[in-house]
Amino acid sequence: MAILEDVVTTGASTMRAIERAVGSGLVVARVLCLVDRDEGGSEAVAASGYRVEPMFLRGDVEHD
Fold first, then answer.
1. Nearest to 7 by CA among 48, 63, 61
2. Which band of pLDDT confidence, cut at 50, 70 and 90, is reported for residue 29?
């Protein structure tokens, strides 16, 4: 099973989703997100043994 997030900031909601999936007997094989805001969320999830695979990093898009 894959967990798909729109944005990862602190990683808290991602970890809740992982915990619920695992608690339901599912095996989480991948954690994907559209945007990693580079605020420590991916590292927090990685500390639990899951690597976040972002499509984009916050720095990839410049704002005017």
1. 61
2. very high
Q: Tell me what the mean pLDDT of segment 49-63 comes to.
A: 88
DSSP H/E element including 30:
strand 30-36
Q: In the beta sheet, which residues pair with residue 54?
A: 33
Cα maximum dimension of the chain: 45
Question: In b/e form, how buried is each residue of 9-44, taking b as 16+ CB within 10 angstroms?
Answer: bebeebbeebeeeeeeeeeeeebebebbbeeebbeb
- Give the model's pLDDT for residue 60: 84
